[in-house]
Amino acid sequence: MRLNPRRPHDIDSLTDVAFKLFAERGYDATSMDEIAAVAGITKASIYHHVQGKEALLAHGLDRALTALFAVLDEPAAKQGTPRQRLEAIVGRVAEVTMRMLPEVSVLFRVRGNSPTERDAMARRRAFDREVAELVVAAQRAGSVRADIDAGLLTRLIFGTSNSVVEWYRPSGPTAAGAIAQALSHLLFEGAGAIDAPEGQR
The whole model's pTM is what? Predict the structure, then answer.
């Protein structure tokens, strides 16, 4: 009986392999030999699909950034009050982060050491600016505190959201949707008990 042959690799499947290694070991510490070994192909075979390691980095970072920008075009990000839209964006960004954990983990670690990294950083800053504009609108509407600079508030919000890459595991006890919802509630409602007596707040 003939076994089904393994599906041949393409740039997407090789990027999956590469980004798991980049997230675990770091981009600089991962070699093309290691990527080929984990993919189960020869190093030479990889070059049939991509020019090199930086091409894999570029493809994976583009996947992450495209997914993040897509959040801004979702109906919940376009409709409702500025605060409602902001809450929806924060929750969905957290979900994207957990769904694309390797890609987003690497995105958060880029430091501009190559043209690919600098391009990714520029796109990420553009994303933050769009969200910061929504923060300003929410501040003007009186639904988000206005005593903190909008850019700083945006960085603090996403700094908290982005931290999930350090501890979230898909096999963990809490579903990604529940984590995203808890994160949104914490950021916009605070950690204090709603019914706590005045003296205990």
Answer: 0.88
Residue with tokens 């903190």: 148
Q: Domains in the chain, ordered, with CATH? A: 57-189 (1.10.357.10)
52-75 pLDDT, tens digit per residue, is: 999 999 999 999 999 999 999 999
Task: Quickly tell me which residue has 């796109």 as its tokens.
Answer: 123
Task: Write down how long the chain is.
Answer: 201
Q: Select from 161, 24, 50, 160 the least CA-distant residue to 116.
A: 50
Residues 6+ apart with CB under 8 A from 186: 160
Structure tokens at 61: 């970072």
* DSSP letter (8 states) at residue 40: T
Decide if 77 contacts 85 (C-beta within 8 A): yes
Distance CA 178, CA 174 (A): 7
Asked if 50 contacts 59 with a C-beta cutoff of 8 angstroms, the reply is yes
What is the distance of C-alpha 106 from the center of its chain?
9
In angstroms, the CA 110 to CA 116 distance is 9
